[in-house]
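Cross-posting from the modeling subforum.

Setting up a comparison between two proteins and wanted a second pair of eyes on the formatting. Protein 1 (sequence, then structure tokens):
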Amino acid sequence: MKVIIIDDEPLARMIVEECLQTYKGVDIVATCGDGFEGLKAIQQYQPDLIFLDVQMPKITGFEMLELVDQPVSIIFTTAYDEYAIKAFEANAVDYLLKPFSNERFDKAIQKFLDQQSVGNKTPEQLLQIASNLPTQNNRVVVKNGNKIKIIPATDIVYLEAADDYVKIYTKEGGFLKNKTMNYFEETLDPALFVRTHRSYIINVQEVTRIDQNEKDSHIALLRSGVKIPVSRNGYTKLKIVLGL
């Protein structure tokens, strides 16, 4: 069984390693101090099980999972309290609340072994509820070629639906994200982002003018000069957020 440990705390990684020593047939193929290292290790080794911290520098554990393509089995190791962790408990193999006992660790491993007949969880399943955590609505992590780019939410000018993707427009250019418009509508700050049309979400701070287009539709003019369609429902939401 190939295992990867991803945690920014050396002591936490060491504790998981020591706990795994009692299990035969376990091969710890990589220990990583952040999500960037973890993503590379996952792509290289295709592990059977990952021990993953939630809150890490650079990118969080959840943001790293957004970039993982293959199905993965995750045991979260985290300092989040039980109230917060219950939200995604059902979508991961298990979670270990730091500090954890050997008995609690053994229970998590047994849960993983029991679930092997069911199959691994996909990153999308793990992220459905995790997206509601505070760290998920103030930035977006995207792949840009072989690089990973972190886009602060305030840098987003607007988002546009593009088949199975969403194109995120910033002053630096556009970036594709394998998500839905509904995901971003639910995740991004509703005081800053409004879905004006089924295919568009705009940053209200970028709006300079709203013009009537036809009887039941409008056009929002952004600072960049881009014109975004605004449906009747979108116009109602936009007026509320802008205080009109």
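Protein 2 (same layout):
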Amino acid sequence: MTTRRAVLSMAPASWLAATAALAQATYPNKPIRYIVPVAAGGGSDFVGRTVCERWGKALGQTFIVDNLGGGGGVIASQTAAKAAADGYTLMQGYVATHGTSPATRRLPYDPVRDFTPIGMIGGTPNVLVVNTDLPVKDLQGFVDYLKKYPGKASYGSAGNGSLTQLVMELFKQQSGTFMLHVPYRGIAPAFNDLLGGQTQAMFPGLAAALPHIRSGRVRPLAITGNARQPTVKDVPTLIEAGFKGFDAVQWYGVVGPAGIPAPIVQQLNDTLVATISAPEMKDKLASEAVDPMPMSADAFGRHIQAEVQRWTVLARDRKIQVEE
């Protein structure tokens, strides 16, 4: 008797269990939808497409990248959370959808309960940059300037509740300084005003800042993360300078709807870890200043919970709450 005929001859309850087991055993047998919560183009989209191209080869199946921008990732997150938990719909969750947004606003989804963590892809640090007209040369000089002229400087961000705001608020908290926050609708307009001198500082992701650092139009003072970055090797980490908790990075990972069977999660995680651990992948992601961060599905789940917690505490301390 064939496996399929044996399954069909079973009682209903046994049939359902056997059918599920058969589906898992043959996974994946059709293309996988991979939701990227931003419009096509840009760093996040590049990361997703680069990973999916090679991950698909490891799984022996095609990934179909679906860009669902809008709502700061809410539309994509809701879509992914409501999908069938069969492993054929995944989403590129990142620090906003599963970290800073849940910490600063009410969302129609729960970043932990509504998702199955699959694995981490990697992260890029944030770098503290200032307008070159500001009379400071290093981090300590910047702190001294802010304390000498409280309220004179302002900083831009990619928007209220964004990582660029929260990291700067953490810096202000630890340095005992004050700057006015000027939120923008994205990092590009925030950079325009920083370059034009309308704002004096910002904490963008390294990939977004690199062209302006290399052109000499902004001055880098310090970087987040546990180690210096080869692309800006002379820029110290904030941890080096004595600031605690500045291991924060803009990270990208993979989640699916809650309830994906454990064997499928394990298969996805194993192949994802192998994909991002390959030397050529490290070189590819380096163009967006993303360092691979392979970890198990359980470890990634704990990472999400820790991120939501850390930014929630900071948002409460700094009274950051975004009203939609």
